[in-house]
Amino acid sequence: MIKGTVLDFAIIVFYFLFILGFGTFFGRYVKSTKDFFFGGQRFSWWLIGFSCVATTVGSYSFIKYSAVAYQYGFSSTMTYLNDWFILPLFVFIWLPIIYYSRITSIPEYFERRFNSTTRTISVIILLVYLLGYIGINLYTIGVAFNAMFGWDVMVTAILISFVCAVYMHAGGQTSVIMTDLAQALMLLTAGFLVFFLGIEKIGSLSAFWKSLPYEFKLPFSPFNKPPDFNFVGIFWQDAFGSSMAFYFMNQGILMRFLSVRSPRDGRKAMFLVCLVLMPLAAFAVANAGWIGHSMQNLGLLPVGSDPNHIFVDVAFSITKPGIFGFIMAALIAALMSTIDTLINGVAAIGVNDIVKKITPDKEDTFYLKWARTISLAAAVIGVALVPLFMQFKSIYLAHGTFIAAVTPPMIVTIVFGILWKRYTTKAAIYTLILGSIAMLISIKWPVVLTFLSHGVAPEGLQYLRALYGLIVCTAVSIGATVLSKEKELSNIPGLVVDTIHEGKVLFKGGEPDDFDEGKIVHCYIAETSEGVSLSTKMMEYLQAKPGDILYIADERWWLGGLRSIHTKAGIPHQGVDNVIFLGTDLIKQGNLDVNRKVTVIKII
Amino acid sequence: MIALKKDVISLSHPTERRILFEIIAGYLFFIILHASMIIVAGV
Q1: A219/B13: higher pLDDT
Q2: Which of A48, A69, A404, A449 could make an SS bond with A76 (beta carbons 3.0 to 4.6 A apart)?
Q3: SS3 (DSSP) at A554
Q4: Nearest alpha carbon to residue A232 among A70, A399, A241, A66
């Protein structure tokens, strides 16, 4: 049955046009590959936080978590509330490594940490991961639109990938981050709207609560039951496999944290994501399933709905024309905010790890042209992969199986690479190759997962594939390093936990000054021929010395750093305290307005 | 622990001390959140 009305359809078309215009508008800020991939490294923590959540929540999230929530209850939130446990590793070790060593891609990290062979292998694995991720997102939105308008899955996939590719082509990372903000707000609003309209339909919060059985309300599923959604399987697949992959090997997320104006903002963004936005998103994406279960128990929805269609079914039954269109547009927003990140990630790997390797030393405009071309190609390949995912029984299974199969060798290599200085190049190569072979074996012969079953029934064994990968890859990593006669690498500043300080020195070009973060100061601009100079008093407030790296931004916080610049502090002046002398080129580079005050922060 | 052992962070550093505190507070937040969900479910 076709569910959408003409009004719903019109709202979706309006959304497409709005996001297309909004995304392409930021093309004006893209003048180089640095802008295209890293947005000029200028954005505030809240913008990055929202952008990360918009990327995390794909269209599959609404469909998949509503399906799980409909069947198993509040434990569907498990997967979004487990990011916190990896936070110390990310904040203290991975973030400073990627920020100060200025790596542009994970494969580049592999080459600098190990050698070019590891870079090549990781390019292959990452492209499979990113392109597959694009494919599964397009497949999910195709399923939703098929239920809603009766459209063919492939037609929807082609249409949406086209819109994404167009604004990505124009604005790159800046477009991604700015559209992500709009899309994150939209998808969170839609999720909460579904809940409030659902409660209105049911009658009251109390009626909703009473209609659900006790075990449905628990935050965790049983340890090893049911086979397709048990605690141990979800922990290894989602908390280890998906979360680690997302924060440590997803090129899109890496680029997001390289776009942040300072490590301090990166840290704050991560806290915002894990502590506030992910719990909100967990509620937003899953509550249609809880509402659907309740409505079914109360006789407001037919029994035996297809879990994969429950989000659309519930949204349709509780909303009026127009509102339904907004919720479906939010579903598309969730999809597009994920896909644009992935497309940008593929373009970054394509340019930095393939094009620049084959044709080095070209003009930046040459690489920018390639970045845009690869963005379009990534969208096309994503569409071509949709038929592959159509063969899986459920979206949750397709997504989980794919992620768990591809990621463990990369994650283990990255984690050993950043934590263990002794970890050798040979060990990294063996881990990537043998680990990938082991993962393929487990897909062909799932019986190898039996020894890790934890009492989970055979049909749920695929959820333990990530644990299997972790054990095999860890064994290969340790074994190959211990047995290898290779010497410990000495020239890896900033790439291992032991050498982060050296990375800071290289980043700054001098001894880091980060003991005290100092205060944030606000100044009026006085244009000068070149350089930057703050008053002695302001330098004291900032706890800064000449040569320290400063971040200067338009005082309007809501611009999120869109008009800003990084520069080194010059010799302090003795003039008016709240005046900063700023060179014409810096003002132009940062798109700053001389008639407005600027905010100044010491970075390092 | 690794970061402390390798001197990547130091408890004498005011910023790093604050981050550690925030991380621990986050763990407590999630423990309390889940505990309250279990209690509210009707245990």
Answers
A1: A219
A2: A69
A3: strand
A4: A241
Query: Which of the 8 DSSP states describes residue A528?
Result: E
CB contact under 8 A, A87 and B13: no
Closest to A594 in 3D by CA, of A538, A528, A544: A528
| Residues comprising chain B, all counted | 43
Which residue in A355, A318, A39 sits closest to A199, CA to CA? Answer: A318
Q: Are strands A549-554 and A598-602 parallel, antiparallel or unpaired?
A: antiparallel
Q: Looking at the predicted structure, is the pLDDT value of residue A416 above 90?
A: yes
Binning pLDDT at 50, 70 and 90, where does residue A293 land? very high
Per-window interface: A 462-491 vs B, CB < 8 A: none
CA distance A308 to A67: 5
Going by their DSSP bridges, the two strands A521-528 and A579-583 should be labelled as parallel
Give A279 or A308, the one with higher predicted confidence: A279
* Cβ-nearest to B37 among A74, A271, A274: A74
Amino acid at A507: F
Distance CA A203, CA A206 (A): 8
Nearest to A84 among B19, B27, B41 (CB): B27
The single-letter code of the amino acid at A8 is D
Distances (CA, A) of A281 to A85, A247, A273, B32: 18, 17, 10, 19
Which residues 6+ apart lie within 8 Å of A497 measured at CB?
Answer: A93, A97, A418, A419, A421, B2, B3, B6, B8
Rg for chain B, CA atoms, rounded: 15
What does R_g of chain A's alpha carbons equal in angstroms?
Answer: 25
User: Residue B27: its chain A contacts at CB < 8 A?
Assistant: 84
Q: Which of B6, B26, B38 sits opposite A497 (nearest CB)?
A: B6
pLDDT at A396 over 60: no
Buried b (16+ CB within 10 A) or exposed e, A522-554: ebebeebeeebbbbeebbebbebeeebbbbbbb
- CA A507/CA A504 separation, integer angstroms: 5
Say how far residue A229 (Cα) sits from the centre of its chain.
24
A255-264 residue pLDDT tens = 888 888 888 8
Average pLDDT for chain A:
85
pLDDT at A443: 83
- pLDDT for A88: 85
Helix (H) or strand (E) holding B20, with range, is helix B14-41
Q: What tokens does A532 get? A: 């930057």
Per-residue pLDDT at A283 exceeds 90: yes
Which tokens belong to A139? Answer: 């497949």
Q: Do B41 and A74 touch (CB under 8 A)?
A: yes
Output A37 or A207, whichever has higher pLDDT: A207
